[in-house]
């Protein structure tokens, strides 16, 4: 059971009264224990903590007056390793999927699984169903995209990425999610921390539903899967930005870190 | 409190073992009472009823062997009329929105509010916030689109519609939803029945969150708002098709009806 | 030197004074001799014959008063067979391409070679340059698309087709053209007649520039290459519709035929 | 008859044998006289001058070995002022357009006039045809877009711009061209120099065909129309980049200048 120490610090120049939502705290789930957590905002102000949706996304909401705002988070996260016995994990029959899993079969803003369904079936329809097939999708994504910071933007979608063949972590995840949904495997986006990621930053990866449970996959292969720490879960990156700003505030500094603690 | 009698009948040629999900039953909510409901499947088979999500979407799930399948639904729905005092309904401050409403500010597959945000602000940023502004959006959509069956498909998005200026009910709703989200008003898609709709069919409209509650709007103006009956609620039409088919089944007949009952 | 007898007849219900441009006559080029040509319009009216561009596109222009219009074309076309010694035909060096060929390296409305360039290089960058590489592109297009009438429309582009994997002749040609331009091979769209095409209709195919001359390719494989008859040449289908109508006229009948004459 | 002194200097780090095409020399047309022209390449090498297409586009082609390449251009351009009597210039009847003008009615890569046709007719169908209508299109473009360097890229199209409402000179021109074609007015893209442009750079504007001749329009309003100097003409920016590079060469410096000379 690896333990990961995560930290982040964001600084903003808030120029007008502004509403801010932050998704930077590690999620508390059955698979992820959070210890020694600390969240500090400066200057001191009232902060509301919300939980949204069935996946336990936690967010902080602040109404901020003009100031230099700093928000700092740290925690130690103990995560339960997921099975790696790939050959034995099958796909769930669509007729027996739990109801809360069904929406993750639907196309979403950045994962046009409807548009890419025929492509997904053509490429992966003949592969053995289950973890092996999801692995094949992740391999395809990894091999056919070039990881190129700056090549995509916040509105880049899975379909864009299939065409242009470049992207960053969120694009890799979006494409893999769209292809999984396209062959009938529920898949969703996870924002988080990632131990050993270079350069350190927030990370985006995905989670697929197989044999009755969710499994993490990171098609970028930029960090070990057992070092992934969930912050928030959504249909795609549209649901889980680390900050949502309504008003006028500019990010002036961002520092993120995640390291394995010695056991 | 209008009462609407709704009926639908779908027939399928099921050619292989097929999983089918139906969203055709009226939702049971605080604002919508369902009486004398009857749902019949022929040939007789086991049917599972699921509720998905926070909006109380109800669906029927069937595993169907090859056959001629008929599914019939009928009910009487008493709906609580919503306020029509438009001038007095304001927009909610984003900082005080309930947590479960927040996802309806996010862009979705067919409602690219991120892409259309600047356009929305340019057109509607100066209009008085509240019901009047949402009404202005619906008026714009109604005036700038031509209702043209066949001009769009299942993958047509709000952005497509802004460009091509034609569509059907789902396109009208998608565009109005995208524009509402674009100016910071939570909005979602509702599939349903609509009394007096010509020709009778399932209908798609929208719901916006103002002053702490949800309000129906139908930018097509093809049916009176107090004759709208909710089946299911989603981010857009991707979430609420009347049928989802995994396998091989062709729709051979569809009959839909909705009429006001005398009070 | 195969000889092909081509015929077409178009009928229109002209409801207002309308300008009509027709591109239905076989082009007269070094490689294509046109004999026994006949073009008849009923009712009798003045008809202007225009030649546009460097490729010798011929078109008929009419100003039509309200009427039932019939335009009939027939001709015998003797075409010079092109080399089939695929292994010996190389790609031209971009630095020595004739000036009039250069525009056919540029992206066009339905052939987004800029967007698809990286994909083209990834798939075909390692293939031996020349006719064999163009053949590989045509094979890929043929194998990865399903020929599905009705699956695409007049605004479908090569990028759309890569994603959705279905199309008709113009889509096959657009995708192959985009991929050729993407790897630096000039390519253009040709509208025409095609002997043995089933069902008979106007056809769309492509032409690529290799070793100093243009070669026909038909990625649909629906008709023999030596039965292809050029009507008009353009950057893509936007340039060569068989009819361009400004006014109000509806096509009520279209008959097309192309057969090899016995030698 | 204003005289404009134009100069440009481009420097490249050429890392491999590279083919380069430059479009930086002022075009010689009936409306534009070029004097005291000087084009220098360093290191000294063979340079081929090509003219492409009916619009007299001139380009320089070089095969360059690895080196630090500098290309310098200067000239004095005397241009014939175009009519500004807007009310008297009508649109040409489509039935009498010269054959070489017809392709500029077709949609092109970055000007999707087919997609935007209905929008164009809705917005501008009722405006008096002629220069006044083209002016109305340019005004609409200028008022509805924000000039925002960096907001668009080389693959941004007119349809993108209608949605996102930001762009630079090429985007302004593309949108105005698409709208003109959409209402049946031939329009094309012109790259050039522009006196008084701030900051100095190459510029992109458009030309429309009215009453039998071409007229310049610059929807950005960033420079006076009589200070516009044509380099090259095309369907859109895809046809007229100032440099086309096949190989490996990076632009390390670009200096452009255009000033009115005292008469």
From TrEMBL, chains A, B, C, D:
<dbReference type="Pfam" id="PF01841">
    <property type="entry name" value="Transglut_core"/>
</dbReference>
<dbReference type="Pfam" id="PF21295">
    <property type="entry name" value="Bact_transglu_N_2"/>
</dbReference>
<dbReference type="InterPro" id="IPR048930">
    <property type="entry name" value="Bact_transglu_N_2"/>
</dbReference>
<feature type="domain" description="Transglutaminase-like">
    <location>
        <begin position="161"/>
        <end position="221"/>
    </location>
</feature>
<protein>
    <submittedName>
        <fullName>Transglutaminase-like superfamily protein</fullName>
    </submittedName>
</protein>
<dbReference type="InterPro" id="IPR038765">
    <property type="entry name" value="Papain-like_cys_pep_sf"/>
</dbReference>
<dbReference type="InterPro" id="IPR002931">
    <property type="entry name" value="Transglutaminase-like"/>
</dbReference>
């Amino acid at each position: 059971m690896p333990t990961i120490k995560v930290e982040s610090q964001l600084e903003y120049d808030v120029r007008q009264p502004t509403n801010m939502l932050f998704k930077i705290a590690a999620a508390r789930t059955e698979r992820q224990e959070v210890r020694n957590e600390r969240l500090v905002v400066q200057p001191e102000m009232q902060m509301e903590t919300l939980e949204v949706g069935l996946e336990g996304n936690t967010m902080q909401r602040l109404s901020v007056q003009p100031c230099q705002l700093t928000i700092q988070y740290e925690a130690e996260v103990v995560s339960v390793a997921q099975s790696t016995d790939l050959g034995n994990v099958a796909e769930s029959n669509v007729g027996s999927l739990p109801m809360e899993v069904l929406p993750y079969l639907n196309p979403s803003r950045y994962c046009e699984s409807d548009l890419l369904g025929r492509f997904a079936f053509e490429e992966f329809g003949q592969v053995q169903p289950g973890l092996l097939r999801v692995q094949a999708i992740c391999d395809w994504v990894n091999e056919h995209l070039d990881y190129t910071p700056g090549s995509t933007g916040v509105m880049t979608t899975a379909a864009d990425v299939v065409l242009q063949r470049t992207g960053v972590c969120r694009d890799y995840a979006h494409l893999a999610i769209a292809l999984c949904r396209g062959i009938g495997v529920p898949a969703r986006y996870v924002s988080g921390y990632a131990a050993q990621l270079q350069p350190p930053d927030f990370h985006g990866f995905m989670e697929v539903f197989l044999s009755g449970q969710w499994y993490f996959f990171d098609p970028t292969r930029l960090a070990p899967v057992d070092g992934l720490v969930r912050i928030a879960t959504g249909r795609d990156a549209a649901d889980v930005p680390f900050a949502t700003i309504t008003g006028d505030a500019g990010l002036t500094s961002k520092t993120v870190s995640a390291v394995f603690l010695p056991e």
